[in-house]
Design brief:
This protein is of the alpha/beta class. Helix content is 46%, strand content 13%. The protein is built from 21 helices and 21 strands. Helix 5 links the parallel strand 1 and strand 2. The longest helix has 30 residues.
């Protein structure tokens, strides 16, 4: 029924524009011969146009939703029909074809008639027919900071989606001149003009539409808006806009990640695609903060299969469902498995034989691991060894260890075990028969990861405080989760084996400044509405993180934001003996003895021991480990 109505409507409209074209061509005085010509042409020309519109899917489109691609496709259909009619004029003459002037007039008139009709339907839908249109809702006057493409698109979206109750009345931008108008909205100069009450704009809210602006400028703008006492929100990140996951009108509060992040990193996407496309790729710890982002980005490069290895079912399920919802179900193989379960992991490697392994599974919480060094050694050292050995045995081309800046001159168990994992992975590169490129990637604290300082501070602010900071001078390097994972992929694509990569992490951030900014973003005043309390450094914590070990040489890579640390790896046999000794004592030694044992193998490690521990000595040396199979048995028993 719908198609019948549409066909009749379009047939009438096209007939009318064809008749009008004849009138225009002959100055509204059509000779009798051309009146008869019009009737003969009408018989076949209208069905031709309707058939082409149907062939190119015009009737499948929702008529009240029209965009530039729809208009371009419609013009193509009209031009094609006019071309075919022109061929009829060329080969048949005026007996059954219209004059050339009529053909040109009809092209423009039919195109404008259909486009105008669809635009009218869209206007009616947006202003009168939408179920979301609530006239009782007061419209809020909105200022938009950013008059580029994103700001202009946001303005157009808000104007068309009147039910949102947001009316753009002013643009602010650093680079555009005043007296400019975008979509009928005036530009009022830079954001600093918001502090000039004489402007009389009476804004209810401001939206920051600058997804690629430097964080320093965002911090300045947020300060201006706070001083002006104006509510503000921002649009989604550029990465979300680029993938089409959200639109510019999907507004959200400004987050601390927006203020602490850095300019977007340029990556060599083609090299990453060559590494991943059509390959079986494994991610361990796939349900964690880094692991889940690895799955998001890797799946976007078209792997043959993505093996999502995770021992926690509640952690794995959300990222699997997220990727299923965006149409990547055919790529996913979720696997519940513990990296310490040798038979299970070996069965996975034997069945799927991944070409690349991204090892993100680890124990990472510093205070928890400080009290339980056995678990940190098991998971971070033996677990890494086991996955790396299987990658070597089953011919993976790349093995990438996700490491941390806490592995540099470590003062805690977590950092020491991650450094041991780095040493073990580098040693595997010395195996004469290996075809696997082993590498590690270090990065700083990840904003928003589970257990990190940002969600902890957010929870404390929501509770009314106090916000607990360990020390007024403590600093950390920060990066966003997508930024960290981008580094991992880029490093994997350019690594040649035995490498340790680190990102140019910018300037360290004082944690107390981070706390103040988060309190201000919540609309509160530090030390007035929410108190900041200093609790003292926790066991194993540093005042500041370091960038390299002594004895590590820094070399620049082809990527300006990535550095390579070069050091001489120990031999694989020597690494096996070290792990054998750790395995021999892991079950029987006390936590303090395990720390001392770690220091034996890591001279740069500065453990924090209990007051009675200095008198304690390291466990008695274990008997030398004979060979790799024996070592594996010892590790499995731990």
């Amino acid at each position: 029924m719908r198609y019948a109505v549409l066909l009749c409507t379009y047939a009438f409209a096209l007939s009318f524009t064809l008749g009008l074209s004849y009138q225009v061509r002959f100055d509204f005085d059509v000779p009798p011969d051309f009146d008869r010509n019009f009737l003969r042409v009408l018989v076949w020309m209208i069905p031709l146009k309707l058939a082409l519109l149907m062939l190119f899917g015009h009737f499948r489109d929702s008529l009240s939703y029209v965009s530039m691609p729809d208009v371009a496709r419609l013009f193509g259909v009209c031009a094609l029909s006019s071309f075919l009619v022109g061929l009829m004029n060329l080969f048949v003459g005026l007996g059954w074809a219209p004059p050339r002037g009529v053909i040109l007039s009809d092209l423009m008139l039919s195109f404008f008639a259909i486009t105008l009709g669809r635009m009218s339907l869209r206007w009616i839908r947006e202003h009168f027919l939408t179920s979301k249109n609530r006239k009782s809702r007061r419209t809020r006057r909105v200022g938009i900071i950013g008059a580029g493409d994103t700001g202009a698109q946001l303005c157009r979206d808000l104007q068309s989606k009147r039910w949102l109750g947001l009316k753009p009345v002013a643009f602010f931008d650093d680079t555009r001149h005043t007296k400019t108008r975008l979509h009928g909205v005036s530009l009022w100069g830079p954001p600093e003009n918001l502090l000039d009450r004489r402007k009389g704009l009476a804004l209810d809210e401001v939206i920051i539409a600058m997804p690629s602006a430097p964080p320093q400028r965002l911090r300045e703008i947020v300060h201006i808006l706070q001083e002006a006492k104006l509510p503000f929100r921002t649009i989604p990140a550029m990465s979300q806009l680029a993938t089409g996951a959200v639109s510019v009108s999907s507004l959200r509060p400004v987050q601390i990640e927006d203020l602490l992040g850095r300019a977007e990193i340029e990556i060599d996407g083609e090299h990453i695609r060559e590494m991943i496309a059509g390959q079986v790729v494994m991610v361990t710890g796939a349900g964690g903060s880094i692991g889940s982002e690895l799955c998001r980005q890797i799946s976007s490069y078209g792997p043959k299969m993505l093996l999502m290895v995770e021992r926690s079912e509640p952690s794995l399920f959300p990222i699997e469902q997220e990727l299923v919802e965006v149409g990547r179900k055919h790529l996913l193989t979720p696997l519940i498995a513990d990296i310490l379960d040798r038979p299970r992991m070996e069965a996975i490697f034997q069945q799927y034989r991944p070409a690349a392994v991204f090892h993100a599974a680890a124990h990472k919480h510093v205070p928890l691991m400080e009290a339980q060094p056995r678990e940190a050694i098991r998971n971070n050292v033996f677990g890494t060894t086991q996955v790396a050995d299987l990658a070597h045995r089953y011919g993976a081309r790349r093995f990438v260890l996700v490491s941390t800046d806490k592995a540099i001159n470590p003062t805690n168990v977590m950092g020491a075990t991650k450094r041991m994992a780095e040493i073990r992975v580098q040693a595997m590169q010395t195996r004469p028969d290996t075809t696997t490129q082993f590498m590690a990637v270090r990065f700083g604290n990840v904003l928003g990861s589970s257990g990190s300082v940002v969600p902890t501070f957010a929870r404390q602010i929501a509770a009314g405080g106090p916000v607990k900071v360990t020390h007024p001078d403590v600093t950390r390097y920060f990066m966003t989760i997508p930024e960290a994972v981008t580094l991992v992929l880029q490093a994997a694509a350019q690594g040649c084996g035995g490498d340790i990569f680190v990102l140019d992490m910018g300037q360290p951030v004082k944690i107390v400044d981070l706390a103040r900014q988060m309190i201000e973003l919540s609309g509160l005043k530090p030390d007035h509405d929410v108190r900041i309390e200093f609790t003292g450094l926790r066991p194993g914590e540093k005042l500041f993180e370091e960038l390299s070990h002594s004895g590590e040489n820094i070399a620049q890579t082809e990527h300006s934001k990535i550095m390579r640390f070069i050091s001489d790896p120990i031999e694989d046999r020597e690494a096996e003996l070290i792990l054998a000794e750790l395995a021999a004592h892991a079950d029987t030694a006390t936590p303090e003895e395990l720390k001392i044992l770690l220091k034996k193998f890591l001279p740069e490690y500065r453990p924090q021991l209990a007051p009675s521990a200095p008198a304690a000595s390291a466990p008695a040396p274990a008997a030398p480990a004979p060979a790799s199979p024996v070592l594996k048995a010892q590790v499995a028993s731990v």
